[in-house]
From TrEMBL:
<dbReference type="GO" id="GO:0005829">
    <property type="term" value="C:cytosol"/>
</dbReference>
<dbReference type="InterPro" id="IPR036390">
    <property type="entry name" value="WH_DNA-bd_sf"/>
</dbReference>
<dbReference type="GO" id="GO:0003700">
    <property type="term" value="F:DNA-binding transcription factor activity"/>
</dbReference>
<dbReference type="InterPro" id="IPR036388">
    <property type="entry name" value="WH-like_DNA-bd_sf"/>
</dbReference>
<protein>
    <submittedName>
        <fullName>Rrf2 family transcriptional regulator</fullName>
    </submittedName>
</protein>
<dbReference type="Pfam" id="PF02082">
    <property type="entry name" value="Rrf2"/>
</dbReference>
<dbReference type="InterPro" id="IPR000944">
    <property type="entry name" value="Tscrpt_reg_Rrf2"/>
</dbReference>
Amino acid sequence: MRQNGSLSRILHVLLHMDQHQAPMTSEQIGQMLGTNPTVVRRTMAGLREAGYVSSVKGHGGGWTLSRPLSHVTLLDVYQALGAPELFALGMAKDAPACLVEQAVNGALGRTLEEAERQLLARFGEVKLSEIAADFPLRASEAKHGTCRVEHVA
């Protein structure tokens, strides 16, 4: 099953941006994520349009947070990314006239819709500041950092 890590990766970026003193360039973020700066700009564009980040071009420019983490939820970021598919499961479409396939798809569809409603509701309750508050606990247990961004000047 193929997974989409875009939400997790962007959350990682946003939390690092909150800790970073200066704007972060697309190149820095790309290095951190192991991807091309063009992909970073394309991904961050949705967050900029939603008002969660801003960007300045040129020397000394880059990406900065436009809102405090306490005003951004997982749901906000998920929606700014274009609401990627939450589940890799899908409905069979091999025999749409088959009553068994219809029954299976009906049960699966209702169950997945309810799971998605519950998950999105929970996303709306989790503020990025709550995730950031977990850092001190982890830092006290960790011997050294493991994020690539720590090595970016």
